[in-house]
């Protein structure tokens, strides 16, 4: 491994990410809303949830079989007359007569007087009677009320991200709606005269707008509600108009393009007049970055090259957005590098990699336009700013995509 002192004068990745987190951290207090149970999967509980009823709600059978008194089957085999049948959903039956059996289905109420259930596998039908071939003791295959949870007991804690198992428990106690944290609402605004929507016929110098779709997908994948995806030409008035609508609807706005040092940097030109900060971060790809506040709403501005946009999101926004959404942290690992790597001095480089059983291989070159090649990657390879050369076999840190 070779290192060389940094010569690039730019904010470090750590410093810029701290600035982004300072801007977005207040979104943790965004409040709660109620959603129907069927829409609560993946949402984060806003309050503690307690069971309003016992589970099971009533005494019921844990097996298809015969409800009996244990004393009636103490000696087997024994022939017991049938006193009726109880199906799941029946309102209830008359008490079980002494010395008799009542056929019951799984989940059906246990008739008064019965204290156990003999599974059907341990019986033989005999006309209007049943032969019990194996005895049972009191309580066998009887589900008593409250043996799962008692009314008033805690079912799920505030801050729980609701998985199917939580939904199952909360639905079982009859809750129709759940109080959940309101999702972070984001608007996406891309810029550039050269960008056209998919399905359009490209003219000279034009490309398809992948950044809007990709940023929206990345946001949704990390628990964020996307309220709008818009595109502006390199026209300040159009950008201002779309920005005004975006900040009115969203908690945070993400822009792509228009932040570098060219002649048509519409994002920088407009947001700088609102006090936005634009400059270089010591990272590759994604060096040009912007942080602004418009009408009290944070605006994060990424460069327009497709890979730069996606890597900027992964490095600067995704970790905190996952935390705010109740998702686990971005997984990182130390693995062996399968290729040799060169990296520019003073810039922390995030190369796209593909993991194998032996380590991580490069999935593409370092170019910020290689978006199709990025589709073959499953990690970012994190090369520290002070490192310029890594030999194959070196251990590197990778971030899962």
From TrEMBL:
Keywords on record: Magnesium, Metal-binding, Molybdenum, Molybdenum cofactor biosynthesis, Transferase
An example molecular function term from Gene Ontology annotations: molybdopterin molybdotransferase activity
Location of the MoaB/Mog domain: 187-323
Cofactor section: Mg(2+)
A GO BP annotation: Mo-molybdopterin cofactor biosynthetic process
EC numbers for this chain: 2.10.1.1
Pathway(s) served: Cofactor biosynthesis; molybdopterin biosynthesis
Protein family (similarity comment): Belongs to the MoeA family.
NCBIfam families with a match to the protein in the record: Glp_gephyrin, molyb_syn
Function: Catalyzes the insertion of molybdate into adenylated molybdopterin with the concomitant release of AMP.
Name of the protein in question: Molybdopterin molybdenumtransferase
């Amino acid at each position: 491994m070779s290192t060389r002192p940094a010569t690039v004068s730019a904010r470090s990745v750590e410093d810029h990410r701290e600035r982004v987190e300072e801007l977005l951290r207040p979104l943790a207090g965004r409040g709660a809303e109620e959603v129907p149970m069927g829409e609560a999967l993946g949402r984060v509980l806003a309050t503690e949830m307690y069971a309003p009823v016992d589970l099971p709600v009533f005494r019921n059978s844990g097996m298809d079989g015969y409800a009996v008194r244990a004393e009636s089957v103490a000696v087997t085999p024994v022939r017991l007359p049938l006193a009726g049948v109880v199906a799941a959903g029946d309102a209830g039956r008359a008490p079980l007569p002494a010395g008799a059996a009542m056929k019951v289905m799984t989940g059906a109420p246990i008739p008064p007087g019965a204290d156990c259930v003999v599974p059907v596998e341990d019986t033989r039908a005999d006309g209007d009677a049943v032969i019990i071939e194996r005895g049972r003791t009191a309580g066998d295959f009887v589900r008593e009320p409250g043996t799962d949870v008692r009314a008033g007991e805690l079912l799920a804690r505030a801050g729980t991200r609701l998985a199917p198992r939580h939904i199952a428990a909360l639905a079982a106690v009859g809750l129709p709606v759940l109080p959940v944290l309101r999702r972070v609402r984001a608007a996406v605004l891309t810029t550039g005269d050269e960008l056209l929507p998919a399905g359009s016929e490209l003219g000279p110098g034009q490309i398809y707008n992948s950044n809007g779709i990709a940023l929206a997908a990345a946001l949704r994948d990390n628990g964020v509600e996307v309220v709008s995806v818009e595109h502006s030409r390199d026209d300040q008035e159009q950008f201002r108009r779309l920005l005004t609508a975006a900040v009115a609807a969203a908690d945070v706005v993400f822009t792509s393009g228009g932040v570098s040092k060219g002649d048509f940097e519409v994002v920088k030109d407009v947001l700088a007049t609102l006090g936005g900060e634009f400059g270089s971060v010591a990272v590759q790809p994604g060096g040009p970055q912007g942080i602004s506040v418009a009408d009290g709403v944070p605006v994060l501005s990424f460069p327009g090259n497709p890979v730069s946009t996606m890597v900027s999101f992964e490095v600067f926004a995704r970790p905190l957005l996952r935390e705010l959404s109740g998702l686990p942290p971005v997984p990182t690992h130390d693995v062996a590098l399968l290729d040799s790597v060169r990296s520019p001095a003073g810039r922390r480089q995030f190369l796209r990699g593909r993991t194998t059983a032996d380590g991580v291989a490069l999935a593409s070159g370092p170019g910020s336009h290689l978006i199709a090649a990025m589709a073959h990657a499953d990690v970012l390879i994190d090369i520290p700013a002070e490192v310029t050369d890594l030999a194959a076999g070196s251990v590197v840190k990778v971030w899962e995509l």
